[in-house]
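Hey Z.,

So I finally got round to the TUI thing we talked about over coffee. Here's the setup:
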Amino acid sequence: MKSAITELLGIEYPIFQGGMAWIAESTLAAAVSNAGGLGIIAGGSAPIDYLRDQIRRCKSLTDKPFGVNIMLMSPNAEELAQLVIDEKVPVVTTGAGNPGKFMAAWKEAGVKVVPVVPSVALAVRMERAGADAVIAEGTESGGHIGENTTMCLVPQVVDAVSIPVIAAGGIADGRGVAASFMLGAQGVQVGTRFLAADECQIHPTYKELVVKAKDTDSVVTGRYTGHPCRNVRTKFAKKLASGEKDGSLTPDEFEQLTLGSLRKAVQDGNLEEGSFLCGAIAGMIKDVKPAKDIIEEMFAQADKLLGK
Ligand code: TUI
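And the result:
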């Protein structure tokens, strides 16, 4: 399936795998890239040596383009931003902030830059700063989210910029892909569906939570900290949500409780203290299969719906 995004990046399918912190590592990223999408390794707040190793592993597993996500709230974002230049990573996506201060260096190094934007205003600023495309991410996404929905945000961003727009948030099958193209997007970013990929290295408990989730099983916590996150509604997430609602947890206490909670979910499957980030579409995901099958089935369905 050709689009401005496949042309821009030299990939086969216009799909990015979300740069999910603690989750998106080289095995998953290489599987997605080998299947014709754009696999992405999460920088998160990882140590520089870990990310360098992951980039090199990914290069050893695929000769296709792949990307790295720079999480801009990370204390070491600056050194990770330089690492992608040093390692000649072809594509960078960014999240959780404005990457303006890194844009010139990335562009000069020939890195394709695709920031996540939760608003039209930031999309316009990113286009002016030289972004190659933007990812318009709706509040249906897992993890750290903005307020607007995919359905409302994507067409408004499409109208406001001339660069290609990638839709993200709530897309897990060919219907979501087709809908995104109808809204004017030229590609999609998919996170939650890839949690249930064979190649995704998360704890089995995490995969089981995603596959068993119903439509009402995600909850947004932490709005009062300024960093709202969508999670699976586990006992821990419910405790956070009620502490936030009834005031029994201060924002500081909330931050203390969630410190390290992504690692506890991803590596330990710890239901008591882990934050199992996931999108609102988790309820639609019923099976675990190879990334290649996920992508091929998604685009076969989308092609049919779009009358191709
Ligand atoms: O970044 C994400 N999702 C994430 S990051 C993450 S790790 C984390 N840990 C602790 C606290 C917060 C996050 C888990 N999930 N998605 C992309 C995304 N970017 N969503 C929203 C935004 C965003 C928000 C504000 C992008 C830009 C922005 O700009 C504000 C400004 O400075 O203009």
